[in-house]
Amino acid sequence: MKNNKLFKIATPIFFEILLFMLLGVADTFMLSHYGTAKQASMSVDAVGMSNQVIGNINILFAFISAGTAVLIAQYFGAKNTDAIKRVASVSLGLNLIFGLLLSSALMIFGKTILIKLGLTDVRLELANSYLKIVGGFMVFQALLNTVAAIIRSHGDTQITLKVTIGMNIMNVIGDAIFIYGLFGMPVLGVKGVAIATTFSRIVALMVLFIILFKRYLHVSDLKYMIQQPLKEVKALLKIGVPSAMENLSFNLAQTVMASLIIVHLSEVAFTTRVYAVQISWFILIFGAAVGQATQIMVGQHVGAKEFEEAYHTCMVNFRKAFAITLSLSVVLFFLGSKLIGLYTVDPDILKLGAVVLMVDAILEPGRTFNLVIISGLRGSGDVVFPVVIGIMFMWGFGVLTGYMLATHFNLGLVGFWIGMALDEWLRGFVMYGRWHSRKWETKRIA
Questions:
Q1: Given 69, 124, 354, 392, which residue has the most CB atoms within 10 angstroms?
Q2: Count of CB atoms within 10 A of residue 316's CB?
Q3: Which letter, b or e, does each residue of 56-86 get, where b requires 16 or more Cβ atoms within 10 Å of its Cβ?
């Protein structure tokens, strides 16, 4: 029965994450074949750096959506329907406000941020045009995250998968139309990718809103946005802030590393990083899907005070995710150069990318500890410990050690990857010990 529940929840999440990632992969793949080799490289770099900024902003929305997911899962386990409606309504209102504020900030300060990250000349202009469109409409992504979290935390993960499939289809079609000028449309390149991405997200949000109010909420429930929302706001922030801080720290660390690569290494290193990260996503998603499913399952068990079930659920799910990731990492170790070859024929990128992906094959099984066990801790309400340890290890090993290996020991991009591998494995062992300590049993919210 447990296996069936994991499969039922995790499989749609896996394909949903895969399709979300394919949005970025499709953008990068099409741009890598756009115009001359130089134009393609600059376009890929511009979108890659812009998405680093957008990723950090997206994590800020997770302050609310992460708390929403945990609280609704626990209230669902406790069978508290009224609390679910209050939390859902308040979270929508908060992320609407945050979305509008952060979208405006990106419109106004986006170019300044890109300059601070080291972009110049053509890459700066391309990245800025992308950021103004995608970043300027981030409010729709904020609401999309929240609505999806509400629906998913009920255990209904197939709905969001179907909507994501439709969103991807629209995005790919839009990419092709605007990058290559199909059907008489202008050739817009990077700007066209931004338009296609934004439009597909808006349509997806509209569909999910219809489903939300048809199945889980009534329009009258939105009164909780203004009627005594303080209790829900406190609970959302108590869970959401630490949960999001762990992800925010990771994304900021990745952004700093990307900036250091631009400043201290080479264009080849930066472009290789963009390709290598996207390839690594295809392994990461197995652990991420099981992690999200684990958070829902553990949250529901903890909400129902079934602590023994919660403990074994996380352990069983982790072992399955680790086995899958380990198998895929072996494939990555030996076939990395061929995978990089799908993006480019540049011999320097092919050579560097092959070595980086060999290191990544060692990194990925370690990452599974954090993807699954931290999700279990989050589902139980134990959210402060992971973020404290995460900040220490991500910046101490991922950034600082990686930078030292890259520059002072002349390992270049490979040095950064070794630093990230140390972070994932060492932090993962600490999280494993935390789960076995069972201190999370005292963190229940519902």
A1: 69
A2: 15
A3: bbbbbbbbbbbbbbbbbbbbbbbebeebbbb
